[in-house]
């Protein structure tokens, strides 16, 4: 007997959304450049639907050097013009500039030993136990606080709603429904991520 994998309802749109849901969305991330990539993609998704972003993601990933912050930080006006004429990308000048400026900011913050990883995981992970898609909020107190901190640092396009989406995408908040097969998997991964963060922080203090 074949047991059908249970997913969050939104994931059953097509092959791209199923893969994103099963492999990417909510898997805890504790590396700065991976978090920056999710942050950048969230900037591009602002006002657009998930399916469109997923169709564009491969092209965006290639055009933005896999979203390596030190590489994106070097993009100049000529590169911006090139990006805005590429029909395979999301051609919104404000979003493109925001991603580049966010990359430059991150590079400078890292020189001061300020890391995105520490910022988004500062309050630890949470598992709200949602059992209904309609019960999931657009933002929370945690995302409002994160948005204020990121804005103060200088990040663009990171309001409370985008910050909530970022926290869920990076696995800080378990956004999978309790009826979803991924819910327990992500909860276990959150605990492992917390241990790894603790080890990394202790190592950084020693160094």
TrEMBL record:
Q: Which GO terms describe its molecular function?
A: DNA-3-methyladenine glycosylase activity; metal ion binding
Q: What is this protein called?
A: DNA-3-methyladenine glycosylase I
Instruction: Name the residues that bind Zn(2+).
Output: 8, 21, 176, 180
User: Keywords, A to Z?
Assistant: Metal-binding, Zinc
- Could you give a single Gene Ontology term from the biological process aspect? base-excision repair
What is the scientific name of the source organism?
Loigolactobacillus backii
Record's Gene3D superfamilies?
Hypothetical protein, domain 2 (1.10.340.30)
Record Pfam families: Adenine_glyco
Determine the domain of life of the protein's source: Bacteria
PANTHER family membership = DNA-3-METHYLADENINE GLYCOSYLASE 1, DNA-3-METHYLADENINE GLYCOSYLASE I
């Amino acid at each position: 007997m074949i047991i059908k994998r249970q997913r969050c309802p939104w994931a059953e749109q097509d092959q791209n959304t199923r893969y994103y849901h099963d492999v990417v969305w909510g898997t805890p991330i504790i590396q700065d450049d991976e978090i920056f990539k999710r942050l950048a993609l969230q900037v591009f998704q602002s006002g657009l639907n998930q399916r469109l972003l997923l169709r564009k993601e491969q092209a965006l990933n290639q055009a933005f050097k896999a979203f390596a912050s030190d590489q994106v930080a070097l993009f100049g006006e000529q590169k911006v013009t090139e990006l805005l004429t590429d029909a395979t990308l999301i051609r919104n000048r404000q979003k493109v500039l925001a991603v580049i400026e966010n990359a430059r900011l991150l590079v400078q913050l890292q020189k001061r030993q300020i890391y995105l990883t520490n910022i988004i995981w500062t309050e630890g992970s949470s598992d709200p136990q949602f059992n209904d898609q309609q019960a999931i909020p657009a933002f929370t107190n945690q995302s409002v606080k994160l948005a204020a901190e990121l804005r103060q640092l200088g990040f663009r396009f990171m309001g409370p709603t985008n910050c909530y989406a970022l926290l869920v995408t990076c696995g800080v908040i378990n956004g999978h429904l309790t009826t979803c097969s991924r819910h327990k998997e992500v909860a276990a991964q959150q605990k492992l991520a917390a241990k790894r963060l603790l080890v990394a922080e202790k190592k950084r203090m020693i160094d």
